[in-house]
Amino acid sequence: MKLHRFPKKIRERLVPEPFGTMRYQCLGCEESFGIERLLYTCPACGSVLMLRHEDEESLVRVGGEVWRDLFDYRRMLNHPPLKGIFRYYEFIAPVIPLEEIVYLGEGHTPLVEANSTLQELAGASFYFKNDGLNPSASFKDRGMACALSYLAYIAEKEHLESPLAICASTGDTSAAAALYASYLGPLLKSAVLLPKGKVTPQQLSQPLGSGAKVLEIQGLFDDCMKVVEALADQYHVALLNSKNSWRILGQESFSFEIAQDFDYEVGDKAVILPIGNAGNITAVMSGFLKFHRAGIIERLPRIIGVQSSHADPVYRYYLEPEPHRRRFRPVSVKPSVAQAAMIGNPVSMPRVIRLVEDYNEAAGAQRVFVVQVSEQEVMDSMILANRNGHVVCTQGGESLAGLKEAVRRGILARGETAVLDSTAHMLKFASFQEMYFEDRFPPEFEVTPDPGLRNAPLEVRPPGLQRYPQPGSPLEGEELADFVEKMAEEIARILGLKRKG
Q1: Nearest 10 degrees: CA dihedral of 293, 296, 301, 305?
Q2: Tens-digit pLDDT profile for residues 314-324
Q3: Which of these CATH numbers, 3.40.50.1000, 3.90.79.10, 3.30.420.40, 3.40.50.1100, describes 115-135+251-443?
Q4: Is 415 left (phi over 0), alpha (psi -120 to 50) or beta?
Q5: For the whole model, what pTM was predicted?
C-alpha cells in the first residue's frame, strides 16, 4: 500500500526518523554510558548492561491507541526496513537510521494453533509461535537483525574497517551471526566458536555455508563463552552473544508480535519458552513491559520459563520462595537434546533477576514462573508435536513439556491460552529424531523412545516379483505392467485399502 493512501492522521508517523538518545544502563552500579562504542559489561563494575531510551516518557505520551493504529497500519506498508522487527522501530532502536537497517526477512513468524488432539493431550489451549521460519531457521535472527544494524551504523559513522564479529554458540547463534555478517559483505567478517561434537551436522553446515571462520574447541558452550568474552575484553572484536544488549532489543520483537497478533489483549495469555542463556526470556519480559508502560497492552501475560533437569540453574534459583535468601549458583550440565538450553551459567541471569522483579511489580502479582522437565519429556513432546502438524525443534519440545508441567502444577490459570516458543526449525535437529526412531540415544541422555511415537520406512518387496527397475535399466512392456500391479497390490495390503466397486 502506497504512503499517500494511508489516513492523514497516521501518515506522518508511518516512516519514522531517528530520534532521542540511547544509553547503556548497568544493572549493578546503575551507572550509564553512551552507545558510541560497543559495550558488553559495565566498565565501572563489570556487571551486565541493558539499553535504555533516555526519553521513554515521549513514547508514553503518544498513547496506546495511536501506537496500536500505527503498528497495524505499518503491516500494510511495503518499506523493507519496517517490514521486519523494526515495524516496532520506536520501541527497539530508534537511533539507527532506516537506511542502515539490515532486513533479511526476519520476524513476524506465524502463530499456529495446536489441533484438538494435541490440546487435549497438553490439557490446555495453545499456539506454537514458529520462530524456526526466520531466515537462518531460528529466533536468533531477531537479535542479529538489530545487533548487525547497529554495528553497520557504527562502522559507517566511525569509519571502522572490516570489524570482526565473533560469538560462542550451540548452533543457532553461529548460523544467525554468520548469515547476517555475510550479507554485509566486505563491511564485516565473522568467526564462531563451537563446542566440538556438541552441534548437530545441520547446524554446523550453516556458518560454514555463510563463509564464517568456524573454530571448534573441546568443552561445552559455557567454556566457549568464557573464551569469546576474553577475546572481546582484550581485542578489537564485536561480540554477538546475548551479552550484547543490542541482541536483547531485537528479540523483544517476539513480545510485540504476540501482542499485535492477539489485538493487544494478552492478559489472559501465558508465554512459555526455554531459558538457555536467559537472553530470550529477558527480551520477552522487557518487551511486554515496554508495551505495558506505553499503554499499548493493559495487562501483562504470564511468563513461564522452562529448563531441563540436565541444565537447570534458574529453576534452582527460584525454588527458594524468599527473594532475600536466593543465591545464584551455576551448575554442571549433562547432555541434553535441547542443545541451545544446555547452559549452566546463563550470561543474562542478572537481567532475569531484575526484570522478574519489575514484571511482577508492574503486574501487581506473581506473573513469572520457572518449571523443570526431563529429557524424556522434551523428546517425547517434540515428536508428539510434529506428529500433529508442527515443525517443532527440541527447544519447542521443551516448551510443550513445560506447558504440561505448568498445567500439572496449576500455574496455568483456567481460561488462559498459552503461546509456546519453538525457537528453531525441526530440520536442524533431525539427527535427534533419527536417534529417537532408531533407539540410539546414549545412556547419559536418559531418553527411551516411546514405541507409539517411533517411525521407520518400510521397504516394499511384493512376493513373486522377479525384476525391479534400476538406474539405466528401466522395465518395459509386460515386466513393467507386472511390477506396477504387484507393487500396488502389496502396498494396498500393507495400508489396508479396499478395492473400488
Answers
A1: -70
A2: 999 999 999 99
A3: 3.40.50.1100
A4: left
A5: 0.93
